[in-house]
Design brief:
The chain is an all-alpha fold. It has one domain (about 10-270). It is about 75% helix and about 0% strand. It contains ten helices and no strands. The protein has helices at about 5-15, 20-45, 55-65, 70-95, 100-130, 140-145, 150-175, 190-225, 235-240, 245-270. Helix 3 runs parallel beside helix 5, helix 6 crosses helix 7 (about 150-175) and helix 9 packs antiparallel against helix 10 (about 245-270). The protein is globular and about 50 Å long. The relative contact order is 0.15. The model has no long low-confidence stretch (mean pLDDT about 85).
C-alpha cells in the first residue's frame, strides 16, 4: 500500500503542472481552428458558394487537400493529443478540483468523454497526415457496428443520453456565465471581457444546439434500430440545410460555430493554466 501512495501523489502533482495547462490551451486553440473550418464550410453551403457540411474529420481532410496547410494539419493533430491529455488529467486525476461528490464525478465523466473523443480524433488526424482519407458515413458505420452488439440499442441510447447531458451542461454554463470561472478575467480589459462573455454565451449555446440535434438522431437510431439515422456534426448541419428555411437555419448554426471557434481561441489565451 505504501508503494502506491507516493506514485499516486506524483501522478496528481504531474496532472496539476503548468505544462498540462499549456497542453489544454494548445488543445483549445486546435479545437477552435477545427470548428472555425467547419463553420466556414457550412456558411459557404448556406450562401450557395460551394463548401460542404462536415465534421471535424472532414475539416482535417479539407486541410489535407491543400499542400500549404500540411504544417497546420500536423499542428492540429498535436493539439488534439494535447487536448485529450488535458481532459484525462482533469477526469482521472481531478486537475480541475471538481471533487468526488456526485456533481464533481459527473463533470469529470464529461471531461473523460471529451478526452476520449479527441483521442479518436487525434488518431484519425494521424491517419490523414499519413495519407489515408477518412471514410464517408462514419457515424452510420459506427452505429451499425454497435447495434449488432448485445444490448446495442441500449448503448446507442446511452450515447445519445450522454450527448444530451453534455449539451445541457454546455448550455447551462453558457447562460449562467460559469464558463468564466476557469478564465483569467483579471487579465482582461473591460472590452475584452465583454467580447469573451458574448462569444462564450453565443458559441456554447450554438454548440449545445448542434449536439442536441446529433443526440436526437442517435435516439432515433436506437428506437428504430436503423443505423442510417445516425449523424455526426456534419450530418446535423446537413439536416438543417434540408429543413424548411434550411439555408437560414444552417447559416445561423454555422455562424454560431464560428463564434464558438473565436471563443476557443480566446480561451486559449486566457484559460487559467
Amino acid at each position: 500500500m505504501t508503494s502506491t501512495v507516493p506514485g499516486a501523489a506524483k501522478a496528481r502533482g504531474a496532472a496539476r503542472s503548468r505544462w498540462i495547462g499549456y497542453f489544454g490551451r494548445f488543445g483549445l486553440a486546435a479545437q477552435g481552428v477545427c470548428f472555425g473550418i467547419i463553420g466556414i464550410l457550412a456558411i459557404a453551403v448556406a450562401t450557395n458558394s460551394g463548401g460542404e457540411t462536415t465534421n471535424p474529420e472532414g475539416a482535417l481532410a479539407t486541410l489535407a487537400q491543400q499542400g500549404w496547410t500540411e504544417v497546420l494539419l500536423v499542428l492540429l493533430t498535436i493539439g488534439f493529443i494535447a487536448y485529450s491529455l488535458w481532459r484525462y488529467a482533469q477526469a482521472l486525476l481531478d486537475r480541475g478540483g471538481m471533487g468526488s461528490d456526485a456533481g464533481g464525478l459527473a463533470r469529470r465523466a464529461i471531461q473523460f468523454g471529451q478526452g476520449t473523443i479527441y483521442a479518436f480524433l487525434a488518431w484519425s488526424a494521424i491517419k490523414i497526415v499519413r495519407g489515408s482519407p477518412p471514410k464517408s458515413g462514419a457515424p452510420h458505420r459506427a452505429a451499425a457496428g454497435v447495434l449488432g452488439w448485445p444490448g446495442g440499442q441500449e448503448l446507442v441510447g446511452a450515447a445519445a443520453t450522454f450527448l444530451v447531458v453534455v449539451g445541457g451542461v454546455t448550455a447551462y454554463w453558457a447562460v449562467s456565465g460559469r464558463f468564466k470561472e476557469s478564465l483569467a478575467t483579471q487579465e482582461m480589459s473591460p472590452g475584452m471581457e465583454r467580447l469573451v462573455t458574448t462569444t462564450g454565451v453565443v458559441g456554447l449555446c450554438s454548440l449545445a444546439a448542434v449536439l442536441g440535434i446529433v443526440a436526437w438522431f442517435l435516439f432515433k437510431t436506437a428506437i428504430e434500430f436503423k443505423a442510417s439515422a445516425a449523424v455526426g456534426i456534419g450530418g446535423a448541419l446537413a439536416r438543417l440545410a434540408h429543413a424548411s428555411y434550411g439555408s437560414w437555419l444552417l447559416g445561423i448554426a454555422a455562424f454560431g460555430l464560428i463564434v464558438f471557434a473565436v471563443f476557443d481561441l480566446l480561451q486559449a489565451r486566457y484559460h487559467e493554466a
